[in-house]
Amino acid sequence: MTLCELNTCAVETPAQELVVVCTGYKQGSQQDLSCRFGNGTVIPAQLDAETQRISCQLPQNMLAGAESFKLYSGQRYIMDCKHGENCQMFHSCASDRKGAPLEIGATNESTDSPSSVSAIGLIRSLSFLDRYLALWIVLAMIVGVVCGYFVKGLPQAFSVVDIQGTSLPIAFGLWFMMWPVLSKVRYEIMFELFKQRSVWFHLTVSLVLNWIVGPLLMTGLAWATLPDLDHYRNGVIMVGLARCIAMVLIWNQLAAGHPEFCAILVAVNSILQIILYSPLALFYLKVVSHQYTGVGEFDLKFWDVLRSVLIFLGVPLVAAIITRYSLIGLKGREWYDKKFMPYFGPLALVALIYTIWVMFALQGHQVINNIGSVFRVAVPMLLYFSIMWSATMLFCRAVGIGYEKAVTQAFTASSNNFELAIAVATAVFGITSPEALAATVGPLIEVPVLLALSYVALWLHRRLKWAT
Question: Which of the following CATH numbers is that of domain 2-94: 2.60.40, 1.20.1050, 3.30.710, 3.40.1350?
Answer without folding.
Answer: 2.60.40
